[in-house]
Amino acid sequence: MGRLAAGAGPAMTCVNPIIAGLPYVCVFRFLDVHMPKQMVQSSPAAAQQPAALRLARLLAGVTRNGPAAAWFDRLLAMLANRVFALPLASGELDFLSERRLAVEFEDLAVCWVFSLHAGSLRVLDRRARPEVSIRARLADFTALALRRVDADSLFFQQRLAIDGDVALGLMLKNFLDALELDQLAWPAKFALLAGERLLSDARRTSA
Asked: Which among 173, 75, 59, 52 is positioned nearest to 110, based on CA atoms?
């Protein structure tokens, strides 16, 4: 293959995450419009959910409980370390060192337990007992990450809950309050924005 022209590097660095994310956006948009509800229907209430969210629940269940669980846990840990590379490097997540944090997505019916070991985030075995847990819906986690809403507002509206060790939970809340969107890796920001758009479109479609 030929070499890139001089000066093309920075531009390609910015464009690559967008190109990489476009197929996923297109697939989920297509599924949201065209996928039959019967494919992932588990109850009458589930049938009323947008197809993209129902597919996300199905995939989350498979990757958390199926044969691919161990592989997906390693992938999730790798992604988490890339997304939070800056907070990890600055020591802002040191409070999780050898501690156990459960992140639960209420509408996906899945939960992962994370810990920080030797400066890296790890996904623990599903049998690990968390010391603190944070719980919300996918859309609310997305809005929180994008700074569309703060943690206190979600708490007061009972859309976000932190349970378990009080001191550890307070450190987690302080981290969430201080976290800025610019601290997240660019591909993560693009994925969050795309996900927010899909969830918003899905709500309008199902209304």
From this structure: 59
Nearest CA to 87 out of 176, 157, 196 is that of 176
- Structure tokens given for 149: 């809403």
* Alpha-carbon gap, residue 156 to 158, rounded angstroms: 5
SS3 at position 128:
coil
Tell me how many degrees the CA angle 149-152-158 measures, rounded to the nearest 5: 95
C-alpha angle 204/18/154, rounded to 5°? 45
If one counts every other C-beta atom within 10 angstroms of the C-beta of residue 111, the result is: 17
Dihedral sign computed on CA atoms, order 192, 73, 163, 169: negative
State the sign of the Cα–Cα–Cα–Cα dihedral 195, 198, 204, 207.
negative
Task: Please give the Cα distance from 50 to 24 (Å, whole number).
Answer: 16
CATH hierarchy code of domain 8-206: 3.30.1050.10
pLDDT in tens, 150-191: 999 999 999 999 999 999 999 999 999 998 888 888 778 777
